[in-house]
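This part of the workshop introduces the protein records we will be handling. Each record describes a single protein and holds just a pair of labelled lines. Instead of coordinates, the fold is spelled out as a row of discrete tokens. To make this concrete, we reproduce a full record directly below:
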Amino acid sequence: MPAFTRLCALTFCIIFFSCQTQPPEPAATPAYDIKTSVWTLDLVRTLPGQQAEYLRNIENNWASARNLAREQGAVLSYRALATTPDSVRGWDVLLMTEYADSTAWADREAIFQAIFDSDAFSYVQPARPSAELREFVAGDMALRAVAAAP
């Protein structure tokens, strides 16, 4: 099975099983260990014929901001993955960000606002705003790794 197909299948399984109704954890148990990285996933459906332009916006601004957050230590890694848009899958772009810990994840809005306001960030004015090019299928899912390759 090609690596991309395995990644898509793994991502689907993670999302499917994480969206299942679970009984709430006891209040004494934190949702995330503060020392464990936290991943967020966003599933995006680009509008017909708009994927290339949307991905340019992602590369120019989304990835640039995450790179600056990585330099600050708030973000450990990030990925933007795309597949061919079709009518079977409900999404064609997967955005993933790994935050250093639950504190960085909880403070993500303030972290990115500070980056956007800084001289280090160079906003690239897109031909059209990303909001006109896509729909969110599922967003801001916070996950923690339970198994990973060394």
About this structure: Residues 51-72 form the longest helix (22 residues).
